[in-house]
Amino acid sequence: MTLPESLRNVLETTEPMRATELTALSDLPAAELQGRERAWVSAPPERRHGLLAALRSLAEDNVDLNFKTIYLLGLDDPSSEVRQAAIEGLWEDEGSALLERLQGMLFSDPDPEVRAAAATALGRFAFLGAAGGLPSSRADQLQEVLRRALVDTSDGSAMQRRLVEALAYFHDDGLVHEFIGRLYREGEEPEQESAVIAMGRSMDVRWRDVVVRELKNQDAGIRFQAARAAGEMQLMETVPELSTLADELDPEVRSSAIWALGQIGSKLATDKLRLLAQSPAEDVREAAEEALGEAMYASGYDG
User: Fold this and answer.
1) Residue 261: enclosing H or E segment and its boundaries?
2) CA pair distance 150, 175, nearest whole angstrom
3) If you count Cβ atoms within 10 Å of the first and of the last residue's Cβ in the chain, which end, N or C, has fewer?
4) Nearest-CA neighbor of 291 among 218, 242, 222, 240?
5) pLDDT confidence bin for 302, thresholds 50/70/90
6) End-to-end CA separation in angstroms for the chain
7) What is the CA radius of gyration of the chain?
8) What is the rounded distance in angstroms from the CA atom of residue 11 to the CA atom of residue 39?
9) Which residue, among 175, 179, 182, 237, has the nearest Cα to 205 in the 3D structure?
10) Closest Cα partner for 197 from 161, 170, 146?
11) Do 184 and 196 form a contact (C-beta atoms < 8 A)?
C-alpha cells in the first residue's frame, strides 16, 4: 500500500525538505497510514530520520501542528535512530496508548539508546502520576514498571540514569533514593548530573545540602541542574547564590537560575527578577518576566 501523496513527496526525493511540504503533513488521519509500514520503510532510513527531526523542530515552533500519526508510525521502524526520533517527537502525547507502548519498549526494544529514550519519555507520565494526573492504578503500574526496569539495568548506563530521573517523581519511593545516592557518590559527572536532576524531582529535604553545594560546581551542566533542583525544592536559602548564577555568562545556567527564582518567589527572589526584567539582553528580560509571572501566580497576586 502506498503512502499518501503529501508524504511520498517528501520521502521519495533527496531534495531539501520545504516547510510548506512538512506543514501539509499535519493532522494526517491515522487511517491513511495504517498498514503502510512497508511503504514507509522503503524510503532510506536517513530520510525517514531527517523527516521526523524536521517535523519535531517545526512543531516546537508552531503548537498548532500535529504530526502524531507519523511519529507513531516511526515507533515500529527497523532503524533505532528513527524509533528514538519518534519517541522524542511524541513529547506532547499523554495518552494511555503511548504510556503502554513506552512501558513495553523499556524491556522489548533491542537498542539501549531507544530504551533510554523511552525511560526519558516515561518521566513525563511519572510526573503526571505523582501529581494525580493519571488514574491511581495506572500510576501504581508505572511506578512498578520503572522500579523493575531500574533493578534490571547495569550500573552507570544511560538507561539507569533516565530511570532514576523518571522514578524520582514518585517522592516516597525508597528504591529511587537508594539509587540517587549511589549515582551521586559513585558516579562521574553524567551520573552526578542525573542524581541532581532526581534530587530536585523528588523534592526530598534529605538532598538539600547536596543541591546547595552543587550550585557552585565547576561543571556548568551540574550547576544548571542544581539551580533547577533548588527551584523545584523551593530552597529559599539558595536565593543569593541563584541571583549570582542569574548573572552568569553561560546562557543555560542563567536561564535555569532565573526560572528557579520564579519558583521560589520570595521577596528577595522577585526583587532580583525585577532587576533582571530591565536587562538590555532580550533573552534575560523575557526569562525574568516569565519567572515573575510564575511567582505572582503562585502567590495569588492578581494585580
Assistant:
1) helix 251-264
2) 9
3) C
4) 242
5) very low
6) 59
7) 21
8) 10
9) 237
10) 161
11) yes
DSSP single-letter state for residue 247: T
CB count, 10 Å around CB of 295? 20
Taking each continuous run of H as one helix and of E as one strand, the counts in the chain are 18, 0
Per-position DSSP letters for 210-228, written without gaps between them: HHHHHTT-SSHHHHHHHHH
Cα dihedral across residues 243, 193, 108, 114: positive or negative:
positive
CB 71 within 8 A of CB 51: no
**Hey, what amino acid is at 19?**
A
Q: Report the SS3 class of residue 52.
A: helix
User: What is the torsion angle, in degrees rounded to the nearest 10, for the CA atoms of residue 153, residue 158, residue 164 and residue 166?
Assistant: -120
Query: How far apart are alpha carbons 65 and 263 in whole angstroms?
Result: 30
C-alpha to C-alpha distance for 229 and 242, rounded to whole angstroms: 11
Cβ-based neighbour number of residue 203 at 10 Å: 15
User: Do the Cβ atoms of 229 and 264 come closer than 8 Å?
Assistant: no
Q: Distance between CA atoms of 13 and 19, rounded to whole angstroms?
A: 15
Q: Is the pLDDT of residue 79 over 70?
A: yes
Residue 300 pLDDT > 90: no
Of 238, 298, 226, the closest CA to residue 272 belongs to 238
Instruction: Give per-residue pLDDT as tens, 215-248.
Output: 999 999 999 999 999 999 999 999 999 999 999 9
Nearest to 224 by CA among 254, 244, 253: 253
**Locus of grid cell 488514574:** 135
Task: Give just the sign of the alpha carbon dihedral 39, 40, 45, 50.
Answer: positive
Report whether pLDDT(303) > 50.
no
Cell of 33: 497510514
What is the rounded average pLDDT for all residues in the chain?
Answer: 94
d(CA 266, CA 262): 8
